[in-house]
Amino acid sequence: MTLPKLGRLLLIITMIFVLANYLPEFYWLKFDTPVSKPVVNYSPVLNKFMSGSFDGIEFSWKDDDNKKYTRDEYEIYCPASNYRQLLFDKKLPDSVNGEKMDLDSLRLHRIMTRIAPQVINSWQIPLYPLLESESGRIKLAMPDDFFRIDDKGITFINAETNQIDEEKSHAFTEVMRKKNFQFPVKLIAGNPSTMKPFDEGYLILDSMGNLFHLKMVKGKPFFNFTSNPIGPKIKHILFQETNLRSFYGFAITDDGRIFCILTDNYKFLQLPVDKYNYDENKFVYMGDYLNKNLIVESDKIVTDYVTDRNHRFIKKYENLYYDGSKDAAINVSNILFPYTLSFVDANSGMVDIFFKLSDLSALWGIAISMVLSFVILRKRKVAHGFDYADIVIVALSGIYGLIAVILIKNVD
Q1: Residue range of the domain that includes 96
Q2: Residue 292 covered by a domain
Q3: Within 10 A of 394 (CB to CB), how many other CB atoms are there?
Q4: How many Å apart are CA 290 and CA 106, to the nearest integer?
Q5: Does 128 lie in the same domain as 102?
Q6: Does residue 19 sit in the same domain as residue 84?
Q7: Domain end residue (candidates: 62, 85, 109)
Q8: Structure pTM?
Q9: One-character DSSP codes across 362-405
């Protein structure tokens, strides 16, 4: 291969790489159709699910029998989740289904948590602040050091001087070893923020799949072995301190089960949620004084599993909100683009080179691209010469290769 031909080949490969990243993006800028995802809640007054969505004109609510409601009616029928507005409007009922609407209880049980694929699949910097849990102060304070855990133990590093605190590191490591913690770690889950009512430290999964609880109390290590029936199957833990103090957070397994980790002896309570794919779906925990809504959101359906305040299952509701408006654009995209390249993973937010294949319908697009390239290149045969390698390039890259071999003409 001559140097000019090699240079042309490299230019074609570079163009294919660029087109595979940007051409699908330009396509979806033109043909993407926004679909309004509904908001779902459960009404203990009506014993029905209520979903709200924007119809292009206004935001309205309807129950699972398709009966419509105004916003004010929705708030009245879902009093525990809208208690602040009802209190302002002087419409908060004294009781619902025999449960007294006590303001302190309403505040305490109002909890909202979201777990998105980006949270589970993103990479974390393995340095963590360990806050003082009992400082005697109202507000939490960020410490001067961060810790890491490797196969030798836990190490505390001063954030300003980058020096290791040997004494503190040794003290914590010895406590962990006495509890039979097996270094290194599989997972460290915590809420490293001062914007919370109190601090409970971290839940740590060791190399054998045992779960431990670590925090610092008056400068000393607090380290407990927990009851963990799941073992190494834990994929992710969302740790969350709430004033309710009934649970530490949620554990998600590699097969898509969701557990609530209770503060009662670290018991694992499996939530009544199925069809949860943590790589694609968002999980929303929406709790109030009367009920807990366990919501799984996909790109086509929103499913609400409602329980009582003790997570006992009541009923399930599915809202298939996708109207098929994108189907034609998706089908054309699968034919046009045999694969796509991206520098950012939508399910993790990580920056890298991500390669995604289309389905078998891409063979039609490749075939059409090959025919077009053959016709166009034959017309250029006399002036530029015909190179069958161009047909092979198009066969491997479809429309990307077609554009590249047409724009970068052959050389003698």
Answers
A1: 39-109
A2: no
A3: 27
A4: 9
A5: no
A6: no
A7: 109
A8: 0.86
A9: HHHHHHHHHHHHHHHHHHTHHHH---HHHHHHHHHHTHHHHHHH
How many residues are listed for the chain in this entry?
A: 412
The confidence score (pLDDT) of residue 382 equals 46
**What average pLDDT does this structure show over 324-339?**
90
pLDDT tens digits along 162-205: 999 999 999 999 999 999 999 999 999 999 999 999 999 999 99
Report helix, strand or coil for 272.
coil
* Distance separating alpha carbons of residues 41 and 286, to the nearest angstrom: 9
Instruction: Tally DSSP H helices, then E strands, for the chain.
Output: 11, 23
Q: How far apart are CA 241 and CA 55, in angstroms?
A: 37
What's the number of CA atoms in the CB half-sphere (13 Å) around residue 126?
A: 10
Do the bridges between strand 68-69 and strand 59-63 make them parallel or antiparallel, or are there none, so unpaired? antiparallel
CA quadruple 271, 273, 278, 282: dihedral positive or negative?
negative
Q: Quick check: helix, strand or coil at residue 249?
A: strand
Same domain, 105 and 227: no
Between CA 291 and CA 313 the distance in angstroms is 10
In this structure, are 155 and 269 located in the same domain? yes
**Three-state secondary-structure class, residue 193:** coil
* Same domain assignment for residues 22 and 55: no
CA neighbor of 137 nearest in space, from 197, 192, 202: 197
What sign for the dihedral angle of Cα 96, 98, 103, 109?
negative
**3-class DSSP assignment, residue 406:** helix
Whether 85 is covered by a domain: the verdict is yes
Per-residue pLDDT, 342: 87
Report yes or no on 301 lying in a domain.
no
Q: What are the beta bridge partners of residue 132? A: 216
Half-sphere exposure of 288 (CA within 13 A, CB side): 21
Cβ atoms 305, 273 nearer than 8 A: yes
* End-to-end C-alpha distance for the chain, whole angstroms: 11
Q: What is the pLDDT of residue 94?
A: 94
Q: What is the Cα–Cα distance from 184 to 3, expressed in whole angstroms?
A: 52
Would you place residue 383 in the very low, low, confident or very high pLDDT band (cuts 50, 70, 90)? very low
Whole-angstrom distance, CA of residue 195 vs CA of residue 160: 22
d(CA 116, CA 297): 9
Which residue, chain included where needed, has tokens 């794919």? 277
What value does the mean pLDDT of the chain take?
Answer: 91
Nearest Cα neighbor of 292 from 278, 273, 320 is 273
Cα 72 to Cα 69, 83, 85, 99, 299: the distances in Å are: 8, 12, 9, 22, 29
Residue 400 lies in a domain: yes
At 156, list the tokens.
């505390």
